[in-house]
Amino acid sequence: MTDSIMSKAATMEIPINSNGDTGTLPEDDSLEQDLQQVMVSGPNLNETSIVSGGYGGTAEGIIPTSSIKGSNMHHSSSSSSMTAEESTRGVAVEKLETMKKWGINTYKCTKQMISERFGRGSRTVDLELEAQIEVLRDTKRKYENVLRLARALTNHFYNMVQTQHALGDTFADLSQKSPELRDEFGYNAETQKLLCKNGETLLGAVNFFVSSINTLVNKTMEDTLMTIKMYENARLEFDAYRSDLEELSLGPRDAVAMARIDAAQEQYQLQKEKYERLRSDVIIKLKFLEENKVKVMHKQLLLFHNAISAYFAGNQQQLEQTLKQFNIKLRPPGADKPSWLEEQ
């Protein structure tokens, strides 16, 4: 019946009047009955299938209309993609804002630095603190020279000890192969071996001295100087924003200018708090550094003096007692190079 209806409908023509109105369809009782039958016995709209392959397609192309409800998933994925896009846009805006602030801050600090260098800008000066900082820098330079000389002494003395060790072995070998000079070679071999042993003991003391000075100079002092560098940068930023606020305060007082003055005042206050906090940190670190330096150097200079004096006086017992006094343990022979596990 349906094929009959479709064939009739496909061959029907709809006449059009000159006014664009449709003409009256010819009466067809059989067509009307067929349409009524389809309306009564036809499928429910909710169960209708859409043929994707066109009219007369196979069942494989049939898509249930219930699956159309899955279009909500497209809305969900669209919403998630919009959220990701908004998140990406937010990160980009944040980075742009950060770069903008960095650029403004760099410009202000560079302007302040140039003004100070050419004597046109004013700078905040803490005479007492800057004097202490200069003393520290000078002390570090002098201690670096002590460290350089102590390392040179260690290298030279190590080479001498190695030469004494080789000379002692040679004397001992000649003592066995020269019966007529056995006693003389034997005396010298024993002397060189004793000097070599005492030299290794002295090297242990000097190496401990070098290690302690290196820690003091390149770690303790360097840490304080890093804080000082941060303090000096904060001082430059503080003066830059202070100068900016002073310039704005001398200008007009309209609404736009007042808004800029308020923003500059806020930034000035933040930089002032940062500057004062780092200034306090520097003062505390300088105090503790001075106390630590005196404590460390008192011990190390006493060790260096006692060890050198005992060695060149030939007092082996005093030399060994010096190492015990400062809890210095010598590595056993053959342990000069650490194992691969210790190097990790």
Distance between the termini: 90 Å
- Which class best fits the helix and strand makeup? mainly alpha
Tell me the fraction of residues in β-strands, as a range: under 5%
**Strand tally:** 2
The side-by-side strand order for the widest beta sheet comes to 1-2
SSE topology string: HHEEHHHHHH
- Count of alpha and pi helical runs: 8
Low-confidence stretches: 1-32, 38-71, 336-344
Largest sheet: 2 strands, antiparallel
What form results from the Cα inertia axes? Answer: elongated
CA radius of gyration: 47 Å
Mean pLDDT over the full residue set = 77
Instruction: Give the fraction of residues assigned to helices.
Output: over 70%
Model description:
The protein is an all-alpha fold and 344 residues long. Helix content is 76%, strand content 2%. The protein has eight helices and two strands; from the N terminus they run ααββαααααα. It has helices at residues 2-11, 29-41, 71-117, 127-177, 182-249, 255-312, 316-325, 340-343, and strands at residues 49-51, 62-64. A two-stranded antiparallel ribbon has the order 1-2. The chain is elongated.
List keywords for this structure.
344 residues, mainly alpha, two-stranded antiparallel sheet, 8 helices, 2 strands, 76% helix, elongated, disordered N terminus, disordered C terminus
Short summary:
This protein has 344 residues and is an all-alpha fold. The protein contains 8 helices and 2 strands, in the order H-H-E-E-H-H-H-H-H-H.
